[in-house]
Specification:
Elements lengths: L2 E4 L1 H17 L3 E5 L7 H9 L4 E4 L2 H10 L4 E4 L8 H7 L2 E4 L2 H13 L4 E6 L14 H8 L5 E7 L12 H18 L5 E3 L6 H5 L9 E4 L1 H5 L17 E14 L26 E7 L11 E3 L5 E5 L4 E4 L12 E6 L1 H8 L5 E4 L1
Parallel strand pairs: 1-16, 2-3, 2-9, 3-4, 4-5, 5-6, 6-7, 7-8
Antiparallel strand pairs: 1-10, 10-11, 10-15, 11-14, 12-15, 13-14
Helix pairs in contact: 4-5, 6-7
Length: 357
């Protein structure tokens, strides 16, 4: 059985690195846990770090967090669906919102549950996902200001998640100006200006973020140490908190080119025979006990640099080990580095064991 392993010490070191950055700049932050897909083993590891604020886009995951530690502030990081209002109020202390009618429903449900529900008003700033349009923000804010059992915790924006728009200094200055505009208009103070996700880390490291932007939601940087501007690993962080291990179940010297009448494969692909294909060429191929049901090959990379991923079917992955210096045998484990989306597939699979290292 293939398994994914979380390396505790590397996670702790990444968390300490980030926490020092934020504390030294008086920035509040929460850990985005949606990658973990509600896995209790890994959620406990996050709580053990001392995290007091956790963000997720699945209510079922927030429910698990509250069951593990009801004192943690939970944040639902997408606009609530109408059918989910009751559970949002029950399991999320804070939610991201963009619709007046939805906030009114949250207000009514919070009254029923005798709770104060906090909201972040998300503002559209170019990435074209969720957000109130800037020119409508003041009217929007005023229309919900006095709703019972609703506390407007702040404003925020989401960049880079849909269209790839980066959180530049100019974008965050614009977000700061929205804060000033609302505070002046309504004579109030906005506690949080939530400037985005891991993609904003490089700006923070350069001290290029406006001081008014005082809150961030961090997931990918914690688990992968990635600078999303450059694609490189942030100096001082680990990019291999997670690793995938899969067992070899067959090793055979086989032709590089399939033989017979070609049709569509079981996963919908059609092999294209090159005109100059050398039908006599062979390679030493290994089959691993993992497939497309659990992962996508483009998001994993063998730690052995001499291994090449050939292709995958629903339950098996074929690799070329011809050039490897290691003499692999049946039952050996092959380890892989994982990208964020690769980990998301693996952690969402019931067929992949989750372990701690």
């Amino acid at each position: 059985m293939a398994f994914i392993k979380l390396y505790r010490k590397k996670l702790e070191e990444n968390y300490t690195f980030l926490n020092n950055i934020f504390e030294s700049r008086n920035i509040e932050w929460g850990v985005v846990t949606k990658l973990l897909c509600g896995n209790k083993i890994y959620l406990k590891e996050i709580i053990a770090l001392g995290v007091r604020e956790m963000h997720d886009s699945r209510i079922s995951n927030l429910k698990k967090i509250k069951a593990l530690d009801p004192t943690i502030q939970t944040v639902y990081i997408k606009p609530p669906a109408k059918r989910s209002i009751e559970n949002i109020v029950q399991y999320a202390d804070v939610s991201f919102n963009t619709e007046i009618d939805t906030i009114k429903m949250l207000s009514k449900e919070a009254q029923k549950q005798n709770k104060i529900h906090k909201i972040i008003i998300m503002i559209e700033m170019g990435d074209l996902r969720e957000g109130v349009m800037g020119e409508e923000l003041v009217e929007f804010y005023g229309s919900i200001l006095s709703l019972p059992n609703i506390e407007i915790r702040g404003i925020g924006t989401n960049l880079n998640c849909l269209s790839g728009i980066m959180p530049t200094q100019d974008k965050l200055i614009q977000l700061s100006l929205y804060k000033q505009l609302i505070e002046a208009k309504f004579n109030i103070e906005i506690p949080w200006v939530s400037g985005g996700t891991s993609v904003a880390i490089p700006l923070i490291l350069k001290n290029a973020r406006p001081m008014a932007v005082n809150h961030f939601r961090i997931g990918e940087a914690l688990f992968f140490g990635k600078d999303l501007f450059t694609g490189e690993t942030i100096k001082g962080m680990h990019n291999d908190v997670f690793k995938l291990y899969s067992e070899i179940i067959e090793i055979t010297e086989k032709p590089d080119t399939p033989t017979g009448e070609l049709g569509e494969s079981g996963v919908g692909n059609t092999y294209v025979m090159e005109d100059d294909a050398d039908l006599g060429v062979t390679s030493l191929r290994a089959i691993l006990d993992i497939g497309l049901l659990d992962m996508q090959p483009q998001y994993i990379e063998a730690e052995d640099p001499d291994i090449t991923i050939v292709d995958a079917s629903s339950d098996m992955l074929v690799i070329d080990i011809s050039n490897s210096k290691k003499k692999y045998k049946i039952g050996d484990l092959v380890s892989f580095k994982i990208q964020y989306m690769g980990a998301l597939y693996l952690l969402n699979s019931d067929y992949i064991e989750k372990t701690i290292g």
